[in-house]
Amino acid sequence: MAKPRPCVVPCCNGERFELVHKFPSDKDRAETWRSILCIPELQQLDLATVRGRHFVCTRHFRDSDYKNKLSRSLNVTANPSLNLFGLHDEEGLNRVIPPMVRLPVPSEPQKSDSSDRVTVKLQVQPMLPENMLPVVEVKLLDNRNNFTASSMEIINLPGLTEDPLATLPIKREQPRLQISNRRTLAGCTPGKIFKFKRKSDMIVETQSMKKPAVVLRKLKIVSPRKQSTNVATPIKVPTTSSETQTDTEKRRPPQVKSPAQKEVNDVPQSDEVSKNTTKVLALLECTPENLQKLQRKLQAQDGGALPFDESLFRDLGDGEAAKAIMVGTQSAVDEQHFLTIQGTQLERPIRVSYIWLRDHCRCSECYNHETFQRTLSILDIPDDVKPASFELSDRKLEVLWMDDHVSSYDLDFLVQSQFEVSKEKLLHEHAQPVLWDRDLISLCPEYCRVSLSELICEDAAVAKVVKSLVAYGVAFIEKVPANQQSTEMAIKRIFPIHKTLFGEMWTFSDQMDHGDTAYTKTYLGPHTDNTYFNDASGLQILHCIQFNGSGGETMLIDGFKAAEQLNLKDPKAFERLCNYPLTGEYLEEGKHHSYCAPVIKRNVITGEVEQLRFNTYDRAVLNTIPQEQIPQFYKDYKRLAAEINDETMAWQFQLTPGTVMIFDNWRVLHGRMAYSGKRVMSGCYVSRTEYQSVARTLGLIS
To answer: Among the four residues 12, 93, 242, 362, which has the most C-beta atoms within 10 Å?
Structure first.
């Protein structure tokens, strides 16, 4: 809950409220608020001071001033108008304040009764071979008869920097350890696994944890001159200090020498292949850096053949690195920086790095719960930060750091913050859009159509419009008076309007008010708008407010469907279009907008298509691609254009006065047939971030 703040309006008598609003950051609107309130004390202050110190509570705003009934945010045009001189208007006094929709934040650490937990504290023991693991009996020093231990397990997996077997003798027997019922935090036990059984006399099992080695698969080596000659060369990996000679020999393929010896046994080769083999293996030299490079390449290749030349051990490029991230590959990790938690209450173990835990502390000292912002500087966290001890109980993890700072985390918070969980949510959201072509969208019109009166009076109609935009990329508002003011009112009921070089609301016909093909009567092919902006508008709104003539049918194409078809037919062309840098440009007197980006943009985490920037009219001079790649670029670009312009993709209809069309400018391409007569259009844009903000508020995306 937000901290209550006093309302500046005199009739509220300084009473504090949970939902208050700052004066707008826009100077003109802030000045409007100050003149409406007519409070003498505010007239003497500058606007920056007014914004920082004074607030207006929700009782002075109408319901229509909010984005919707579930929102705590005002529209950009909202002004205080109720109960300014007395508390009389029921609309403001009886408003139900919606709760704040926030991710669950772990509460501060609280002391709990020690009767429901047991504290374990063990000294660091040397790691032993698997065949010599001791079982250490631990007796519970407590007089309670019905003790119930936690069902969770805490695993701390440190990496070793030297071989403990080289300096410490191996003993089959270890001294007995004792568990005390003290209230100190547990967990200062690197290199051990603890399993608590529900018995008063428990057995604590210890197991050595080995630092994971860089294990490479067999490499398919293909000679560039003789492609038919394949040599499978198993590569030996240098053993880590925690491995014994027996462990290494078990993993090593039989009768294979290491790459450092530059030999490949029992494989007939020609002189040329042998020469290339020696050359490339000499580059490897069995260094950790080259091993990591080769491992990343193998993971990105996913078992395919790699060319046997100098590029074999080059590091991954940007495209390959992104692919490696998308398939979830990871390099070898140093376990001494991580805490692994597992148990019956978790579907699978989760691993959390210590620096992440320290950065995500949600105590009042490290996090401002009023502004929902961090107060702890990242520069104040050491790279090698480690806990002094930790304890897990009642689905809460409590960590005592070396500097005596205490952090508390809800287990659910840790689970939901895992990369795999976040990626799964994003993939689920990507599955929400329904890809359509002409037949599907015209024969099964499940997209949204609501009337203006429904939209104004019912919040459910707002949710229906946004849900349709998420699923189909298009929605319609009907029975809207054919003028710009009514169009603006309908859109502002849902979203704030994005101001661009065309203004907020714009009206155009075939008069050349701007240097754009849209201001003509000729055929306008399918395209997306704003390819020359750094951040193209998320939604576009069009309303035909006057039409006397023939032709001019609107066409819509699902760009995600077209991209999917290209990927199925020519995946290499699709991949190249995700990387070709193409510049969009807008020129007119006094204005020059330009931006360079790939035609197809994929989500950096999931790899799914996120945006199309396709506009054959706005393309600038093509100087962002080497001339050697230009012919291939045009072939690929034409393949995508052919999919977009396929007659089975285009949904055509007549947009008539009274119907406002909203569509996703990152997904849906729009166009228009040539027409004769007079046609006047009104419309506007909505930024991508504002569109997604409303969708998140309604719970449609995360």
So the answer is: 242
Q: 100 near 2, Cβ under 8 Å?
A: yes
E strands along 528-573, which residues? 539-551, 554-558
DSSP assignment letter at 318 = H
How are strands ordered across the β-sheet holding 135-140?
177-179, 135-140, 202-205
Residue with structure tokens 């027996």?
Answer: 246
Distance CA 10, CA 23 (A): 16
User: Within 10 A of 687 (CB to CB), how many other CB atoms are there?
Assistant: 19
Beta bridge partners of 202: 138
Q: What are phi and psi of 188, to 5 degrees?
A: -80, 65
Judged by DSSP in three states, 299 sits in helix
Q: What is the pLDDT of residues 25-65, one digit of tens each?
A: 888 888 889 988 889 888 888 888 898 889 999 999 988 88
The helix or strand, by DSSP H or E, that contains position 246, with its residue range, turns out to be: helix 245-251
Q: Which residues pair with 547 in a beta bridge?
A: 679
Cα 446 to chain centroid distance, Å, stands at 29
Q: Is the dihedral of CA 446, 482, 496, 99 positive or negative?
A: negative
Which of 46-50, 291-295, 357-361, 501-505 shows the lowest per-residue confidence on average (mean pLDDT)? 291-295
Closest C-alpha to 30, from 79, 92, 82: 79
Q: Which of 123, 146, 126 is nearest to 134 (CA)?
A: 126
Closest listed residue to residue 133, CA positions, set 125, 143, 141: 125
Q: Looking at beta carbons, which pairs linking 315-322 to residues 24 or more positions away fall under 8 Å?
A: 319/575, 319/578, 319/579, 320/296, 321/296, 322/602, 322/604, 322/607
Q: Could you tell me if 149 and 197 are in contact, meaning their C-beta atoms sit under 8 angstroms apart?
A: yes
Q: Which residues pair with 652 in a beta bridge?
A: 555
Can you tell me the distance from the alpha carbon of 180 to that of 188, in angstroms, rounded to the nearest whole number? 14
Q: Between helices 288-301 and 318-326, what is the axis angle to 10°?
A: 70
Type of residue found at 278: T
What are phi and psi for residue 565, nearest 5 degrees? -65, -40
Roughly how many angstroms between the first and final C-alpha of the chain, as a whole number? 21
Q: Are 334 and 212 in contact (CB under 8 A)?
A: no
| Residues 6 or more apart whose Cβ sits within 8 Å of residue 527 | 614, 615, 616, 617, 618, 669, 670, 671
Gap between the Cα atoms of 257 and 266, Å rounded: 11
Q: Which two tokens stand for residue 162?
A: 């030297």
Q: Say which residues have a Cβ less than 8 Å from residue 620's Cβ, sequence separation at least 6.
A: 583, 584, 585, 594
Rounded Cα distance between 233 and 567, Å, is 34
Read off the pLDDT of residues 137-188 as tens digits, 9 standing for 90 and up.
Answer: 333 333 334 433 333 443 443 443 444 344 444 333 433 333 333 333 333 3
Q: How far apart are CA 356 and CA 677, in angstroms?
A: 64
Q: Report the C-alpha gap between 174 and 134 in whole angstroms.
A: 7
Q: Is 575 exposed, middle or buried (0-12, 13-18, 19+ CB in 10 A)?
A: middle
Q: What share of the chain is helix, strand, coil (3-state, %, to 5)?
A: 30, 25, 45
CA distance 542 to 508: 11
